[in-house]
Amino acid sequence: MKLQPDKSNSLTINAYGPGWLEVNGQKFTHSLQVSSLPGASPEAWPVARFEDLKAQNFEWLTQSGAELVIFGSGHRLRFPQPAWLASLMKQGIGLETMDTAAACRTYNILASEGRKVVALLLLER
Question: Is residue 31 a contact partner of residue 123, using CB atoms and an 8 Å limit?
Fold first, then answer.
């Protein structure tokens, strides 16, 4: 039986490794936001280290149209401060935290299901 991959209109994370990601065939070496929302393109996320995170890095998501945010916290699992997520909670937008590799895999699954998801992927050097 010949298998055909499901076609997705959203961005797909094709590959990842230490310090890099590939989205729709394009390689990136900086932190990135990737969205399954229509017309989205991968965009630089201005956070180089977990220690640099602030509430502003999450607040803009209330206007994004996402129903779920996947936060890839780098090489290891680290949680953002709950106060930084208050604006998301008020809007009923869920946020799941995992290491960046797991976030890449989870984003692809949710995007392929047609979910409105944004991945914030921290790439550490």
Answer: yes
**How many Cβ atoms sit within 10 Å of the Cβ of residue 100?**
25
**91: number of Cβ within 10 Å:** 13
7-50 pLDDT, tens digit each: 567 899 999 999 999 999 999 999 999 999 999 999 999 999 99
Domains along the chain?
Answer: 13-121 (3.40.1230.10)
How many residues does the structure list for the chain? 125
Let me know: does 71 contact 96? Beta carbons within 8 Å: yes
Torsion 38-40-46-51 (CA) sign: positive
Instruction: Give the pair of three-digit tokens for residue 117.
Output: 């998801």
d(CA 101, CA 7): 22
Using the 8-state DSSP alphabet, how is residue 111 labeled? H
- The predicted pLDDT at position 125 comes to 78
Strands ordered across the beta sheet of 20-23: 13-17, 20-23, 26-28
